[in-house]
Design a protein that fits this description.
mainly alpha
Length: 111
């Protein structure tokens, strides 16, 4: 039984390594965005310093712009981009961004 368990663990580790190798650049950027989003929320909750708040928001927007420019390789990339761009639906998308994301989604669905 130990060999079966060991094989299962080795298989799980291999699956995790394969997943890490197949992550898209946008998924990596979204991970960065999540960290900056948490930081921004913390700063807004703990500080009234508008410069500090603005700087936190600016850092997040910089990553959003990198995400927007990154290639969308999977349909989930488009979904993550929309989540970040709207701050989980808090804000709407500009017409320009809406058209870009629509076109990228259509291209991925047609592929």
């Amino acid at each position: 039984m130990a060999a079966v368990g060991g094989a299962y663990i080795a298989g799980a580790e291999a699956a995790g390594a394969a997943e890490a190798e197949t992550r898209t650049p946008l998924e990596a950027l979204f991970d960065r965005w999540l960290v900056l989003d948490a930081e921004e929320r913390r700063i807004y909750a703990e500080s009234d310093d508008e410069d500090e708040q603005g700087a936190a928001t600016d850092r997040k927007i910089e990553v959003e712009n990198l995400m927007r420019a990154a290639p969308k390789l999977k349909i989930t990339d488009v979904s993550l981009m929309i989540l970040a761009s709207t701050d989980y639906g808090l804000f709407g998308l500009s017409d320009e961004w809406r058209e870009q994301f629509r076109d990228e989604a259509r291209a991925l669905i047609a592929a």
